[in-house]
Amino acid sequence: MCGIVGYVGDDTAGQIVHGGLENLDYRGYDSAGMALLGDDGLTITKREGEVSNLSVPTVTGATCGIGHTRWSTHGPPTDTNAHPHTGMSDDIAVVHNGIIENYEELRATLVADGHEFTSETDTEVVPHLLERELDDGRDLRAALESAVAKLEGSYAIATVCADTDRIVATRHESPLVVGHDDDAAFLASDVTAFVEHTRDVTYLEDGDIVTLADGDATVYRDGEVVDRPIDTVEWDATAAEKGGYDHYMLKEIHEQPTALRQALSGRIDLDRGTADLDLTFPAGFLDSLDEIQFVACGTSFYAAEYAAQLIESFADVRATAELASEYTVDGGGDPRRTLTVAVTQSGETADTLGALRRANGGGIRTLAVTNTLGSTVTRDADDSLFIRAGPEIGVAATKTFASQVTTLALLSVFVAQERNALSAADARDVLTDLRGLPGAVQQVLDDAGDVREAATAFVDASAYFFVGRAHGYPVALEGALKLKEIAYDHAEGFAAGELKHGPLALVTEDTPILAVLTEGTRPEETLNNVAEAQTRGAPAIGIVDGSVETNSLDTAFSVPSLGPVTPLVANVYFQLFAYAIAKQQGRSIDKPRNLAKSVTVE
Ligand code: M6R
């Protein structure tokens, strides 16, 4: 949620900051604003709505500026609540991501001291605190250090002040990354903001204070300068562009074959029948495990549910998937014989990080499975495994789900082999299926026109029900989530057998049933459940692979059989279906209402 941009350099800061905000508006698009430091001091401009509503003011000599795009938590999306926020004067400007939990108490103290507030946000306490610290004679860096010591909650904060030609920023449980160019320094909550200018980045750590001045960045820790490594981002700006597609989401759906090849690259040895992952666990650790717990949210949770099934079937170990926001370590087994795997595309989801920290606190070994190098989850977990999907800009996750399940399938084989639970021959079968994924997904993508045409008949449906069994069940849940997110229609995913235990009451001729009917998902039984809905008038759409007779379906789409990962290929039809429905309804597909790509609040 929310995006921060900062720039100090020789170029016109207004254009660069605005460009950065445009690149980041998938993080939040309720309002946007910027503060530019020019020859005549600070110019602040902010506006309700998307970044495109915000015009760049003409500010002479502005070579330093910060900007913000907001996903509202405290206070509705209005011009006044938009960031940057100021104190009693307009000489200081602050942008903030996260939530300041003790803001009411701080605000009351500041009001008692005579400070007047204009917004309903938690953020506004920060510029007022900074004013107080500056009045006490501190410079901006010392003032920020002292001010944040009073904050509880999570934050990434950047500030500029009228009489100091610099940006000062800090983070606590909210991402912040610095970009280095020859004569310029950048700051952002996500490298996407400035990757068109530089790919050399430093990921800040919690508690770091960074100063951007004279085109350079200096990181401080407890008042001392510290060295932080400079990493090079592997992808370039074109990876974060639409590339001729109408929406990022459609582009990302079509990028799946490439993303899957990247996820698999160098990780399969078919001759030996092994999954080669760059992971090292203590000797005997995997072998002695009693349980693997996955924790995740949203789409990542459905990928985790899929993975838990794969691990149980391959690796002969209990595996569970828990919603991160519900996860507790209480009542669990022996922490030394448990592995907790946090699955998160962004690596910044607060609920998932919270669960991971609870696991760490309980003495459990942890593994992060993520798309994002340098993200918080990679620091908090004992080990990390990357899904290598490349940047995903569409708020609705598509290619990252495919890459998560694929990487987790490799992990399942890896764990199974360490436990001697899977023979090389059986592993080879699974790995061969995984190798087939990019081509199989491409076949489905080649069918996109047929899905678009078929979806036309269902665009006015009153609800959509997705059903599946076994690996088809998480895919049904994911299919329904995509439709909800981008079409704003009522959609639910059910374990197919559960339909008759209640949801059948919702079924009418206006509620299409979309079913996964592929090998390994007990398609005969699911087909019976589909027939029960059809008897009540519901049209039925099935994703089939020839493993059962499916003439009774109203519409069928075929996928090649790839053993346990066939439902992952079926999911691509669900993505295309959701996209087609949302497109026909003219929805804001890449930036659905009320949502943000990364949810950094609990
Ligand atoms: O970055 P994460 O994978 O941790 O994000 C988790 C969810 O917020 C995310 O999957 C969300 O459900 C997506 N919008 C789904 O399309």
Automatic annotation (TrEMBL):
Enzymatic reactions: D-fructose 6-phosphate + L-glutamine = D-glucosamine 6-phosphate + L-glutamate
Listed GO MF terms: carbohydrate derivative binding; glutamine-fructose-6-phosphate transaminase (isomerizing) activity
Active site as annotated: 2, 597
Any Pfam family hit: SIS
Annotated ranges, domain Glutamine amidotransferase type-2: 2-215
EC number: 2.6.1.16
PROSITE patterns xref list: GATASE_TYPE_2 (PS51278), SIS (PS51464)
Swiss-Prot/TrEMBL keywords: Aminotransferase, Cytoplasm, Glutamine amidotransferase, Repeat, Transferase
Domain SIS: 281-421, 454-592
GO biological process: carbohydrate metabolic process; fructose 6-phosphate metabolic process; protein N-linked glycosylation; UDP-N-acetylglucosamine metabolic process
InterPro entries membership: GATase_2_dom, GFAT, GFAT_N, GlmS/AgaS_SIS, GlmS/FrlB_SIS, Ntn_hydrolases_N, SIS_dom, SIS_dom_sf
Chief location of this protein within or outside the cell: cytoplasm
Any Gene Ontology CC annotation: cytoplasm
Top enzyme category: transferase
Subcellular locations according to the entry: Cytoplasm
Assembly and binders: Homodimer.
NCBIfam families in the cross-refs: glmS (TIGR01135), PRK00331.1 (NF001484)
Role of this protein: Catalyzes the first step in hexosamine metabolism, converting fructose-6P into glucosamine-6P using glutamine as a nitrogen source.
Protein name (Swiss-Prot/TrEMBL): Glutamine--fructose-6-phosphate aminotransferase [isomerizing]
